[in-house]
Amino acid sequence: MEKLNFITKHRKLIITAILLVVATAVVLHFLDRKEPEEIYPVVTVEKVKQEDVAIYGEYVGRIRAQQFVEIRARVEGYLENMLFEEGTFINKNQLLFIISQDRYKARVDKAKAQLNKDMAQARKAERDLERIKPLYEQNAASQLDLDNAIAAYETAKASVSMSEADLYQAELELGYTTVNSPISGYITESEVDLGTLVGPSAKSHLATIIKMDTVLIDFSMTALDYLKSKERNVEFGQKDTTRSWQPHVTITLADNTIYPYQGLVDFAAPQVDELTGTFSVRAEMTNPDRALLPGQFTKVKLLLDVRENANVVPLKSVDIEKGGAYIYVLRSDATVERRFIEIGPEINNNVVVERGLSAGEFIVTEGYHKLNPGDKVDFYINN
After folding, report:
1. Do 163 and 252 have their domain in common?
2. Burial of 356 (0-12, 13-18, 19+ CB in 10 A)
3. If residue 369 lies in a helix (H) or strand (E), which one and from where to where?
4. What is the pTM of this model?
5. What's the N-to-C CA distance of the chain in angstroms?
6. What is the pLDDT of residues 93-150, one digit of tens each?
7. Are 120 and 223 in the same domain?
8. Could you tell me the residue range of the domain that residue 317 belongs to?
9. Would you say residue 241 has pLDDT above 70?
10. 151 assigned to some structural domain
11. How many domains does the chain have?
12. Does one domain contain both 192 and 295?
């Protein structure tokens, strides 16, 4: 019996100890329990950058030669000789064609003979006048005799002047029988065959010379682009030495490669085309390798403006609604502000902010769709 009481008493002690341990554990659990931490939206932020932003317009242009000179016959005659290879480079003043010269040589010879005759008559008239003057002073010749001698001399001098002019004209026409190149460039195929009667009243067009070391690119820009550039004091066709840049063009070749040289705009039409509503613009571009051929169409990229020290943000960070464009700005206390901004041109995946942001502010670039104005956030800075 005593043994049974001992076991019972011992069991009670064990149970009591277990209950004390459990109670202690429960108390410690409640004492150690912390309030749950508040969870904030996690976003990515980025500092507003300032950079120079180049703004381009893209158009379709057509290439033409800087100079395109038609070689024409200035006198009539049969084409006797052609002294060039078609399609080759021609130097300035190089002899190209020879037109039959016999008739013009004969005219020169006749004009020379007439001039010699008139000069002889002028010399005789001068001698006659010199003889009559002392006779007139001695009353051995009448006033009429003197007047006739003077008139004869003046007439002879006039005849000499006319003969000199005739000789000059004859020599000029003889010179026109040899046709030289007025410029350096590439010559096209001949428009006439040897033996053809050419001249002003016949077939006058002999060939064409194209100067291609520099080409012109014609294109039309929209009135909106033109007026926006005017607002920024960009005058196309006029070089502005106060700017660090000039309106230049780059072009894309037929194989979609970018031509390695740039051209400068040297002309802009002073009026709008009534049919298209566009402005005609011309750029000049060097062409040392003849990669650009007159008549080609090409893609033209024109530098319209450079926004210096512009505030630039990623386009994905801008929330565009009907009422305008908004962006979330991170405050110093880790809360966000939904701010209205005025945006400008888009460049690649960025956009220029005209008003509403300052350089150095942090904006939310990822995760802003889950935010409300004034929310506190956890953030990562994207460099």
Report:
1. no
2. middle
3. none
4. 0.64
5. 84
6. 999 999 999 999 999 999 999 999 999 999 999 999 999 999 988 888 889 989 999 9
7. no
8. 44-53+309-381
9. no
10. yes
11. 3
12. no
